[in-house]
Amino acid sequence: MARLVNSIFFTFLYISLIYTLSPFVNATTSQSDIQVLVAIKTLIDPFSITADSFLNSWDFNVDPCETTGASFLGILCTVPDQVDTNATSRIMEIDLEGDGLEGFLTSSIGNLTELVTLNLGRNKFRGPVPESITNLRKLTSLQLYENFFSGSLVDDIGVLSKLENLDVSNNRLSGSIPSSIMSLRSLTRLDLSNNEFTGKIPQLNGLWQLSSFDISNNQIYGNLPQFPLKIKTISLSHNLLSGHITPVHKLRHLNTLDLSDNRFSGGINKGIFRLTELSHVNVSVNRFTVFEVVEFSDKKSQLHTLDVHANRLHGHLPVNLVTYPNLTEINLGHNLFSGEIPSEYWSRLRFSWRSLNLEYNNLEGSVPRELNRTSEGVQGNFGHNCLICPKGLQLCNGQRTASECHGGDLN
Description:
It is a single chain. The chain is of the alpha/beta class. It is 13% helix and 24% strand. The chain has a domain at 244-411: Leucine-rich repeat, LRR (right-handed beta-alpha superhelix) (Alpha-Beta Horseshoe). It has helices spanning 2-21, 31-42, 270-273, 344-351, 371-374, 402-405, and strands spanning 75-77, 91-95, 102-104, 117-119, 124-127, 141-143, 148-152, 165-167, 172-176, 189-191, 196-199, 212-214, 219-222, 233-235, 240-243, 256-258, 263-268, 280-282, 287-291, 305-307, 314-315, 329-331, 336-340, 355-357, 362-366, 379-381, 386-388. The protein has a 14-stranded mixed beta sheet with strand order 1-2-4-6-8-10-12-14-16-18-20-22-24-26, with no helix packed on it. The longest helix has 20 residues, at 2-21. The N and C termini lie far apart (56 Å).
């Protein structure tokens, strides 16, 4: 409580001092922009402004845009028109990333109409994202990640037509994703992860330049939307999404796909494996029942990591996995696979596969004795199956008992 009282006292003292000094500054910077900088600093708890933070260098005895020393770090300005003698410098970039600042973002931020970049990431801002942020029509990068912003994302954010990078991840934002996001035609990166968003994902195919989309760790439900064809990264893990995943089959430039911990069903089928640029696939912890792996013989796949664990996949293990030349990490555990492990797997474990998880399935048959000599450096788990393993092979530890293996359904 004493700290809070002191903070309020010093804040009001600081406000009075700033507004006393600022009229005497012979500034080439727009006075309205200076007032916004003053407002930003006065809404920050002074006890959170450390000696080495950029905000500590904001000295309103000097001109923000004219200083060349250690004052007003984190600020970039426009260069005024030399022909127009009345022209003033304007603030075009604010970067206070990682300063550990505690406080609120002033609604007057919307008066910085020449602002191109606003980066307040990795601080402790709280409260809502001001509606006035929609006045920043020249903004290309808005980064508010790793703060404590709450409330909904600004409904009219779609008016920021020049926005290329929008990152509000790791906050406490809630409500639905504004449908106006569809108007952000210049957007290349959209990160809404680790918030409390609900509702459905709006159709994204109109964001034709979007390369990366991350909405993991929210409470989003419904089916997959239509994605732009240029997209490379899709991260939707830890939500309530359902239905089939066929919308991703036509995304030829897709590199990373993470749909883990949702409620998707149906098949992980050939359409996924025909995407030659796809490197990392994680569709674990869902309700898939079918697993179809196309053979790669004439085209080179970039697939490196495949994780399908904790689904309801049945049938035999897919032999065609061995035709993927760059594949090194495979997790097929916690499913309903049965039959023997394909003999083709053993040669891959000797030469290229570095991780193979098959635990908690219904697999049977013998594991070759020579695997004991070649498994050094290989990670994984074959446990909780009905395999006959060579003595000392740690990958095989913890097999089911004979009675469990002959007692019917094992899962």
